[in-house]
Design a protein that fits this description.
Elements (H helix, E strand, L loop, with lengths): L6 E6 L7 H15 L3 E4 L12 H6 L3 H12 L2 E6 L8 H10 L17 E7 L7 H13 L3 E9 L2 H4 L9 H21 L4
Parallel strand pairs: 1-2, 1-3, 3-4, 4-5
Helix pairs in contact: 1-7
The protein binds flavin mononucleotide.
The site of flavin mononucleotide (FMN) has 15 residues, from helix 1.
């Protein structure tokens, strides 16, 4: 594939109706689009996955894994808005990454789908720290998979006040920062000439 427009896959790490992170991922996607990216925003509830264990894989890879692997292969990077559960990323986010990392339908490396791609991460929580600790863990996990995670990140606290709706962040300074995360991802991909 060759394209000069960076293509980013975006998702929120929550299945919850009214999820603050689903509201926030729209803001991050907007920032990346404003900076020139094409963003594919998916809902993980459309890709229902069991908790990973090898017997399920041995019995036949779930179709949702194949779909997510195809999507990852077609994009140059990831945008994720994650909740924080007990100081870490939710099982949903880790489970999704773990499934994608399994061998592809063509027998290629699933981990290879992430290699040298670029990620931007944000978090939201009703609490004062905004899920900051989940970002540290997620950053580490993404780096382990071979993604370059841009240093800019934003944790939006008091999310019930600040994120009243999808794509609405009622704190102008933080909105600029979240847009800045998306722009940084685009900048890295454009500089590196790394688009698919
Ligand atoms: C099991 C569990 C653990 C949680 N742990 C934390 C936590 O460590 N820090 C935090 O800020 N919020 C924590 N929360 C609250 C979440 O931030 C809150 O449920 C948030 O709305 C989840 O994100 P969402 O709105 O995108 O679904 C926890 C919630 C659950 C269910």
């Amino acid at each position: 594939m060759s394209a000069s427009v960076p293509r980013l896959l975006a998702f929120a790490g929550s299945l919850r109706q009214g999820s603050f992170n689903r509201r926030l991922i729209h803001v991050l996607a907007e920032g990346a689009r404003n900076a020139g990216a094409e963003v594919t925003l998916v809902e993980l509830r459309d890709y229902p996955l069991p908790v990973y264990y090898g017997d399920i894989e041995a019995a036949g890879m779930p179709e949702a894994v194949r779909q997510l692997q195809r999507l990852m292969g077609e994009h140059d990077g990831l945008l994720i808005s994650t909740p924080e559960y007990n100081g870490s990323m939710p099982a949903l986010v880790k489970n999704t990454l773990d499934w994608i990392s399994r061998p592809t339908a063509e027998g290629g490396s699933g981990v290879g789908l992430f290699q040298d791609k670029v990620a931007g991460i944000v978090s939201a929580s009703p609490g004062p720290l905004g899920g900051l600790r989940s970002l540290l863990v997620l950053r580490d996990a993404l780096a382990k998979l071979g993604l370059l995670v841009v240093p800019q990140q934003v944790a939006v606290g008091q999310a019930s006040d600040k994120l009243p709706d999808y794509g609405v962040l009622a704190d102008d300074r933080q909105k600029t920062q979240v847009h800045g995360v998306g722009a940084a991802v685009v900048r890295h991909l454009t500089r590196a000439g790394a688009t698919t």
